[in-house]
Amino acid sequence: MNRRYRKTIIAGNWKMNMTPSQAKALIEELKPLVSKVKWCEMVLCVPYVDIPTAVKAAKGSKIAIGAENMHFEPKGAYTGEVSADMLKECGVKYVIIGHSERRQYFAETDETVNKKVKVALENGFRPIVCVGESLDEREQDIWSEIVRKQVKCAMQGVSVDDVKKVVIAYEPIWAIGTGKTATADQANEVCGAIRDCLRELYGARAARAITIQYGGSMNAKNAAELLSKPDVDGGLIGGASLKPNDFFAIIEAANQ
């Protein structure tokens, strides 16, 4: 982490878990734990049906609420989708864009990710843009080309002023939900490569201000080591964000 230039952000991604009543109970349990956190921004990205309950439960706390996805059109015949205006009225501050599960199961492409990033910024959200390589791409040693391409495509048409509002989450696909984790050095190497790519696109000052998270099975045990690396500025947390004590342990590691 390097707080001199950028914010540390720990964000939970609940995926398809938690009913509204369960969401309220988890947030109520988490709030007193995080009440004295100073150096770390905390976000919970929750399923659509949980958003109103989560926003209400988190009110007055240091926890921001985000969405797990958003359509790029403002309205229309897109059954099952949710627009930026809908999220804005619910009180959402962040939105995850381009998660590998969205790319894999719901045919998201670099093009649609870019559209969503621009719409998110236009509507005042902080997009958490996910990038990462598969196991084959890692083993073939082409991870750098893959991740750089995803970053460049996602940021196409985004201004230097707006890019500072973007959070990048490096999520190696081979480490999501598998129990495998990139080593701290591997995570820092890729996060550093992402920052180098952003530097080429936007210049050194903008690049050093952008928060880059690591998101491949970060947990209470490995968080401190991962977050000790200079280019790892936080985490996008899956399973551990569903357990208040585990999530808080990661937040504590980020708050040091």
Automatic annotation (TrEMBL):
Lineage: superkingdom: Bacteria
Protein localization: Cytoplasm
UniProt pathway: Carbohydrate biosynthesis; gluconeogenesis; Carbohydrate degradation; glycolysis; D-glyceraldehyde 3-phosphate from glycerone phosphate: step 1/1
GO CC terms: cytosol
PROSITE patterns from the UniProt entry: TIM_1, TIM_2
Stored HAMAP family: TIM_B
Name of the protein in question: Triosephosphate isomerase
Originating organism: Butyricicoccus porcorum
